[in-house]
Write a structure and sequence with these properties.
Layout: E1 3-5, H1 7-10, E2 18-20, H2 23-38, H3 48-55, H4 59-108, H5 116-129, H6 136-144, H7 150-175, H8 181-209, H9 220-231, H10 235-246, H11 249-270, H12 272-279, H13 284-312, H14 315-336, H15 343-357, H16 360-372, H17 377-405, H18 408-427, H19 434-439
Antiparallel strand pairs: 1-2
Helix pairs in contact: 2-7, 2-8, 4-5, 4-8, 4-17, 6-7, 7-13, 7-16, 11-16, 11-17, 11-18, 12-13, 13-15, 13-16, 14-15, 14-16, 14-18, 16-17
Length: 440
């Protein structure tokens, strides 16, 4: 096993510090695993008009297949964080992969117009499994990667979630045609069997290859955290950590501002099919490709922001800058979402919005890790994601209501106003980089 050492850090710590080549295999495997789950989040909503036609259910019921991801996450994040903190990355990932595969196979048995309840059960199992994914990137990056790679690795880890969402936007409109019921049925069958086979393959890879942690810590900050965890392995430390997080003013401000940004992204993604078709009828595939554009641009944004953070360590400034750009992107998207402007302009402006709005995800994770060090990354990012789900649950129905009672323009202006509040909250977060101080 190839490895590289960091001798400059060893003199300050009793533990040797090493970065293992295997870290990239672990990270890539996690990216694939994360994608296998997140690609199912939007697979119904992006073809909502087709799903309502086949299963004879309402738009709201189809939207619930997306919102169930948010609803189940909130009560389950605490046991999931406890699982991650006390049993490590490997067992958490195995449980999540197993649940994702089981839920995917349940959907295979929902091919009949009267079996929407079966497909919803499968979607719920997959959604529950998501709790064993969203908190992983920051923890995996910290446990396996060196000081100058942590932010980049976290960005790539978040990339997995975005990759899955991109697949979820792209393939359902291609696989499930808006034709006769028998054609829709064959399309759903293709989609469900493909996803079930893929998630089963990922589960096998994880059982064979995924490891919890390297033998030696990869960074000085991780060495400090290992020593701390080894000296106090008690159940009560988890709840004490939660208490300390809620007493951290900067972290509380980040919770709200992060929730606003990502909750807005969830609302737009869930209702994108309706948003596009309202302006451009019979454009289901365009809606999927616009969603793909948003997420692919966000993948580039995630990696770019991760590299920027590793080079500069300007966590607060990067967070504020990306948040402001997200607001600007939303404003541009609002003014171009018009049939008179043309659908190809929406591809461009949606890409700008996606680059910053989904590129913000790893930036928020990393700032949370800085503000809360030496608390476990799984706990801080788990709470961050729980608040995101709350905002997603609140903003998605609000956005749906506004789209029904107002024009698209004013509904989007409202989201711009909400994002502006998030920008204000972000600017008053204290620039307290505790993890950087531990490395000094």
């Amino acid at each position: 096993m190839a490895e590289a050492s960091h001798p400059s850090s060893i003199s300050f710590l009793p533990q040797e510090i090493r970065v293992y080549t295997r870290r990239w295999q672990i990270l890539i495997l996690f990216v694939v695993y994360s994608a296998s789950n997140s690609m199912q989040w939007i697979q119904y909503s992006i073809i909502s008009n087709i799903v309502t036609k086949y299963y004879n259910v309402s738009d709201y019921t189809v939207d619930m297949t997306s919102m169930i991801y948010m609803i189940t996450y909130i009560p389950l994040i605490f046991p999931a964080s406890y699982l991650l903190d006390n049993f490590g990355l490997r067992w958490t990932v195995i449980i999540g992969a197993f649940g994702t595969a089981i839920g995917s196979w349940i959907k295979v048995f929902s091919i009949a117009p009267d079996r929407f309840w079966v497909t919803f059960v499968g979607q719920t199992v997959v959604a529950i499994s998501q709790t064993c994914i969203l908190s992983i990137p920051a923890r995996l990056a910290a446990v396996w990667f060196g000081d100058n790679e942590v932010s980049r690795a976290c960005g790539i880890g978040v990339f997995g979630n975005q990759l899955g969402i991109a697949i979820g936007f792209l393939f359902p409109p291609m696989l499930v045609p808006n034709k006769e019921i028998c054609d829709i049925e064959r399309g759903l069958q293709r989609m469900f069997y493909t996803v079930a086979a893929f998630t089963s393959f990922v589960l096998i890879l994880i059982l064979l290859l995924f490891k919890s942690a390297p033998p030696l810590p990869p960074s000085s900050a991780q060495a400090v955290q290992r020593e701390k965890s080894e000296s106090s392995r008690e159940v009560k430390t988890f709840f004490e950590s939660i208490t300390r997080l809620f007493l951290n003013r900067g972290y509380l401000l980040l919770l709200i501002s992060y929730g606003i940004n990502v909750g807005t992204f969830y609302a737009i993604s869930t209702l994108l099919n309706r948003l596009v078709i309202k302006q451009f009828p019979d454009s289901e595939e365009d809606a999927g490709r616009i969603g793909l554009t948003i997420v692919c641009a966000g993948m580039v944004g995630s990696i770019a922001c991760g590299i920027l953070l590793d080079k500069t360590h300007k966590f607060w400034w990067t967070t504020v800058g990306v948040y402001i750009c997200s607001l600007v992107g939303m404003i541009i998207f609002t003014f171009t979402l018009d049939k008179n402007v043309g659908i190809y302009a929406i591809y461009i402006t949606a890409g700008i919005l996606g680059f910053f709005m989904t590129g913000y995800l790893p930036v928020g994770f990393e700032l949370a890790a800085e503000l809360t060090f030496p608390e476990p990354e799984g706990t801080s990012t788990g709470l961050l994601n729980a608040v995101v789900q709350i905002f997603g649950i609140a903003l998605t129905p609000l956005y749906r209501y506004l789209l029904n009672v107002w024009e698209d323009f004013w509904a989007n202006v409202t989201l711009c106003g909400i994002l502006a509040v998030g920008v204000l909250l972000t600017t008053i977060i204290p620039n307290d980089l505790r993890r950087q101080k531990a490395k000094a």
